[in-house]
Amino acid sequence: MKKGFARFARNRGALIGLVILTLVIVIAALGPPLYPQDPWRMVQRPFLPPFTAPGLPLGTDALGRDVLAGLIHGARVSLMVGLVSTVVALLIGVPVGALAGYFGGWVDDALMRFTEFFQTIPSFALAIVLLAIFQPSLFFIILSIAIVSWPPVARLVRGEVLSLRSREYVEAAVLSGQNSRQIITRQVLPNAVSSIIVLASLMVATAILLESSLAFLGLGDPNVMSWGYMIGAARTVLRTAWWLTFIPGVAILLSVLALNLIGEGLNDALNPRLARRGE
Fold first, then answer.
1. Sequential DSSP letters for the chain
2. CATH 3.30.70.360 fits 2-278, yes or no
3. What is the pTM of this model?
């Protein structure tokens, strides 16, 4: 574990990503109390460019609302969408992949055919269909993103379990009388957690991008301020007030870049093959 932290610390890209992500988390956690301006309140005339009005460093949007307030308050919602949808996807994908990989046979065939059913439809298109069936509220946005995100998790965990179930310590656990649930949860999954962590970090970034794409199409939650909602609300004035999409777009870009850099750093630190090659 210490060697893994040392390898992560030597990765400059991963450290830069960690700094950026920490800054975003601090803004999401402490920004609203420190900058309590209501992001929905009209404070000035519309379409004020950045740095042209006192007290409004990022200007105002089409309704005269403070863009900085929306950016700060939206950080919490965008991160929550990414994190919660990823956790839900892991709760679905990890058990499916673990059961398919450990038991094999008809269990593997049935669960993988079920997984392939979701993969036959492009994830973005499936998310649009799900939100069209339900309503574009924050709960259903998170649920839709989780539903389209779990199949890669199941396939990754299945591959890891297939390679781990024939190890000596698993056979020793079988001989000691442990049941299948105990072997999967105590022997197999703990040894696959590094790969799951790396994938989860990338899934959070993908979920943030997916929520922004849905909001751009008008399928975001109109009652919740998020970076995706800010971009979606300003899509009709993209040519005349470009900063209204540019500013939250940069926030999304930096957050996604940070998560991808951290994911690559974790992969270098936790992947045994890459670790041995680097040493």
1. -HHHHHHHHH-HHHHHHHHHHHHHHHHHHHHHHHS---TTSB-S-S-PPTTSBTTBTT-B-TTSBBHHHHHHHHHHHHHHHHHHHHHHHHHHHHHHHHHHHHH-HHHHHHHHHHHHHHHSS-HHHHHHHHHHHS---HHHHHHHHHHHHHHHHHHHHHHHHHHHTTSHHHHHHHHTT--HHHHIIIIIHHHHHHHHHHHHHHHHHHHHHHHHHHHHTT-S-TTS--HHHHHHHTGGGTTT-THHHHHHHHHHHHHHHHHHHHHHHHHHHH-HHHHHHH-
2. no
3. 0.91
